[in-house]
Amino acid sequence: MGNILYLVAVVLVIVWALGFFAYSAGSIIHILLVIAVIAILLRVIRGGRIV
Question: Cα separation of 39 and 47, whole Å?
């Protein structure tokens, strides 16, 4: 479960970066970024090992 959460967070950050620098996708990209940051913080707080 933790690996999936980390994978989703990384994918969301990549999508945000592409949307922020390449396209004008609106506020949905920033919402995705916030979700990704929250997922990463939850993983760090729970003591998950980053691969």
Answer: 13
Q: How far apart are CA 24 and CA 21, in angstroms?
A: 8
pLDDT in tens, 8-36: 888 888 877 777 666 655 667 777 778 88
d(CA 5, CA 48): 11
Asked if 43 and 5 count as a contact pair (C-beta separation under 8 A), the reply is yes
CB count in 10 Å sphere of residue 24: 7
Question: Can you give the residue ranges of every domain in the chain?
Answer: 2-45
